[in-house]
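Possible regression after last week's pipeline update?

I re-ran a chain I had predicted before the update to compare outputs. Posting the input and the new output here so someone can diff against the archived version. Not blocking, just want to make sure nothing changed silently.
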Amino acid sequence: MINFLEEIRDYLPAYVRLPATVMREDFCTEQIKPLFLPVVSAVLVQDFFTPETKSKVFVMAENIKKQIVVVFDGVPWFDEPLKAAVIRKAQDMKLVIAYPDWVVDPVTLDKIYQNISVNRGELLFSLISIRRETLRKIYHQNETEPWIGALEILYKHREFYVPTENKVNIAGSVLQLPSFSLNFPTPMQYGGMGTTVGHEIMHGFDNIRIMYDSNYKLEPNWNSAANESYLKVIRCLINHYTS
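New output (post-update):
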């Protein structure tokens, strides 16, 4: 593959850019990541994370959710049906923290790579077999909470909210210095990683997503009066920081 890329370099259109030199180790690493995602994730988890880290951040995120519910309960312009709906969405929000527990179980990892066909001279079919079987078995681990997205961003510094699933993803790569450490005092943990978690949770209640419930259906209790009150608060905040 490396030789192939070098051969076609001069024939590629101008908008296609290849590095001046394609390093074999870099190229192979990037190819291995999606094909052997569970194994790459397992190595990363074993080298850089502990169950205590995941547990601590999960508890912290749940505490932040509870406090957000308290805040919503005190919003004066929420009528009772809307307040109940917004609180329910916050309580139903799923938290995907760091990595799935099965990724560090050797027995499970072995099962994921069973029945995969890898044959010399059949590169394309081998790649398809690996990708198809691993994806199918990863989803099968827990059909109600597929972890493939979390695994794909495990080694990237990312965190995000998924509106269609009312779910917050916090990548495992974020849960290390300088963002987080078990040795940090609790105020630093909440002020650092807690701020990130709270930020992602609140994406579920921004000016667009607050109109949707936890199933990503339009919230029937969100009416024109609620929308105007919401915009009034936003304008107040904007004016405060721009004046």
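Follow-up from reviewer: compared with the archived run. Strands lie at 94-98, 159-162, 167-171. Marking as no regression found.
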